[in-house]
Amino acid sequence: MPLMYFVKIQSKTDSKKCHPRNILGEVGGVVVNGLVNISISTIEKRYEMKSSLTGLISSSYDISFCVLSLFVSFVGERGHKPRWLAFASFMIGLGALVFSLPNFFSGRYQLGSLFEDTCLTTGNNTSCASSSSSLSSYLYVFILGQLLLGTGGTPLYTLGTAFLDDSVPTHKSSLYIGIGYAMSILGPAIGYVLGGQLLTMYIDVGFGQSIDITEDDPRWLGAWWIGFLLIWLFAWSLILPFSCFPKHLPGTAKIQDGKTSQTHQVKNCSLKHKDENFGKSFKDFPAALKSLLRNTVFMCLVLSTSSEALVTTGFATFLPKFIENQFGLSSSFAATLGGAALIPGAALGQILGGVLVSKFKMTCKNTMKFALLTSLVALVLSFVFLYAHCENEPFAGVSESYNGTGTLGNLTAPCNADCNCLRSYYYPICGENGVQYFSPCYAGCKNSVSKRHSKVYYNCSCIEKKVEITPTATSEGFEAKAGKCGTQCPFLPVFLSIFFIIVIFTFMAGTPITVSILRCVNHRQRSLALGVQFMLLRLLGTIPGPIIFGITIDSTCVLWDINECGSKGACWIYDNIKMAYMLVTISVICKIITIFFNGLAVFLYKPPPSGTDVSFQNEASVVMTVSLECDLNKGNEG
Length: 638
What we know:
Distance between the termini: 57 Å
Helix content: 55-70%
Order of helices and strands: HHHHHHHHHHHHHHHEEEEEHHHHEEHH
């Protein structure tokens, strides 16, 4: 990006929509929540990893963030924030580069032989002998890449937000923070679109290898690595422009002179630090952290955002699975619908929250009340899951017998006993009788024909025939077709519409809560406050959220993948009604916790005396954080 573009930004104090924090936030969102998520499935297949291992890869970003957030936010608060953002650009680029390296050192992808999905009476022999592959050792490279990305994200969301808040008047801060968070949310959308397009290219396109298979072939793997190289180049192109930014944008001092403090007053403060250099040394970190932890309003807001993060990250991870199972859609289409509801709704909510707080120039207390109101609306709408769910469609061997034979819970019946089917190969087909089958093999299908839009199957011994069918390629009739049976459930449009509104109101509280945190702590502790917030948010929210949702969804499973060795794998079929009730229970509990701590923060908040100014530029005579709070309290008590 041209350097003159950034110089133009610096020349106008109010032009913060393209603030460096916002630009870098979008880049981080593209790679961390976009490219990584959409590439996980391909990485699992290419490097022979279990989902538990790829889950560790995903969590590595949050682990790095938690470890570094307090240190970076405390040290960087009094440092050169734009240069910290330049450092973030470097680390994000380096992390993206490292994440792509396994593609260049693991050699060409070996296709292997095509799996036969129809009934084979000659047998499909499998071996239980476990074999280890050197490919799985690339796990550590992927983890390193995520750790580096987390290192880059730490100054972005702590120092970057504080830098943005420095540069604008109080009543406009929420607007630009909302835009910044919205751009961070739109980043994953760009990552999904970009990554999805790149996955249509063959994985070894860089080696110039020609192949004769298409994306419909189960052996196909896409070029997941190209997007990470693009992010590497773009992120490093931002290093020099960010380094050229001044420590404070032009006009910042004048803006700060017009601000008044809204810091929550901590009672019975016993710490005093008269040293004007307090906070410039890391040895002062314990005292500064203790001061923050004594701020009850701040801690209530942090716990509120942590509870909200748990449910939002859980749904962000498993919403496509919920839609896929409830409404009988393909995984790709379900992911598209989920993203269409979640990402625009979240971005719109962040912007609306920031716009409304800015337009009405809300004080810190009114901002918290606004967040409380939006959370209440989201809670009421959360009960949509109790009504917009669907019963499971008939499934042979699970909820439906094989024409009166076999037993429920057992995919094997007399009609497919000689087919030697593999339960670990899930390829659903829909019979002409409206019953879904686990795979063509379990339906007893012996012949198949690939047509223009789908694959059809003939001579299926487990499907009760309505008419006699001649198994020829020119015949228009067939006994089964590839894919799940179409659902008769009419609630999909209703569910998506109401869920979109829920997302808007949920994220409308995000920007006001962030603004409230910046206001209720001392001006000199804003970056550290954000560091504490994001650390606890990840420890209590984003890290356990997907785990809790995953365990809950697994508890609704009615058909597990069990291989020939007897090991349990993924879940193939879920109880839709139980899943809906379990998820609404988690949502309601988290929303109640959010509302409780939001309300408690409103109740406990005590603003400082009217007219208390915010100290900013005169660092030689700074009244330090803990000292200021204690002195004001003593004045109030006297």
